[in-house]
Amino acid sequence: MTTRVVTIDMDDSLEVVRDIFKKVRFHHLLVVDNQKLVGIISDRDMLKAVSPFVGTMSETTRDRATLNKRAHQIMSHHPVTVRPSCSSQEAAQLMLARGVSCLPVTTKDGEVLGIVTWKDVLRTILDSHGFTDVS
Fold it and tell me: How confident is residue 135, by pLDDT bands cut at 50, 70 and 90?
């Protein structure tokens, strides 16, 4: 589990979300409301939601307006989550079964504690087989 996560509010604009993705090396941002997890936005969600012409010579007012959408409009609602006691094997099985690339780790009340990504699972597998971490 990675405990360093970035959270955003439901009403943050996609311009704010885009700027956060540019600054951090994360592929997922957790959307919270009153400190409870309500959704998740991936960098792929952003690519689909924002016009590819933003920031180019071809940008129009309509393209730029895609940055005014709000996080809640593009987030995945009801994300698949796990508790801190979840094993790496269980996390891997759940990711494959549900077709997700990360699992937010939450308390039973929905407060965010961290996130497990496919990279975390691979790192654990390599460590368990005596390979050194390449990060």
Answer: low
